[in-house]
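User: Can you help me understand a structure? I only have the sequence.
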Amino acid sequence: MGAKGTTNTMLLEVLSYERLKAREDDEISKLVRICSNAGIFFLDLRGPSTKEVLADMPPIIAAQRNFFAQSSESKLAYASDLPSRGYDNFDELAVQRLKLSREEQIQGNLSLPADLQAVEARLANVVSFNDSVLRDLSTLLCKSLDPPIAVAAIEDPKNPGLSNLCLGLAAAPAGTPLLGSHLDEDMLTITYYDEPFLEVLDRTSEEWRVVEVFENLPIVNVGDRFPEASNDRLYAPLHRVVQSSREINLIMYDLNEGEE
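Assistant: Let's start by predicting it. Here is the structure, written out as tokens:
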């Protein structure tokens, strides 16, 4: 049977990163349960260790908007033949993206446009922070399953694979489908957003449900690598992207240990 239409809101649970960092058993059990069932949750990053990186977000969004407002010629100078990095746009959908490779950042050869050079230190902080967060969550998941999953590659931050920070802007007419039903091709994705843009397929009702903005918390979802690695003990949710009534500013980090 095919999926039904979109109705109501997808009610996501909230996980506390501070409690996960403290290795509280109840919160770790909750992480495993959610990632085995819904495969998506809000991550509450509020706490003493995250104030600086959360303060970095607004200046980055302002800088990426400045970049996306530049001429096509200047932006296409940052295009790449590799799908995990560089600038691309979908003019018919009024969608633009700039993917910043974690590998290039580590190697010191990441090329940034002038607008983003102005916030380079903030970008570096955000990339490193989100890479660390997703590696930490992934390690907890791998070690908490019975039997566990090997974690050597995940624990090594010097092995970034195809991990990247994606900066995005969508400005299509409200209700425009921007990206069809899909699974993320990674281990985990964390998304910071300011407009409800994500629709997730509810496993029980087979209905598409909208993920609303909730206290400005980012969304974390399981990608297709984890079901493969866990023999389907972890679940990657089907989701799609639809334009909201206002422009959508996105900052996403994909943890992906794969190769081009």
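Now, to help you interpret it: The mean pLDDT is 93. Residues 120-144 form the longest helix (25 residues). Let me know which part you'd like to focus on.
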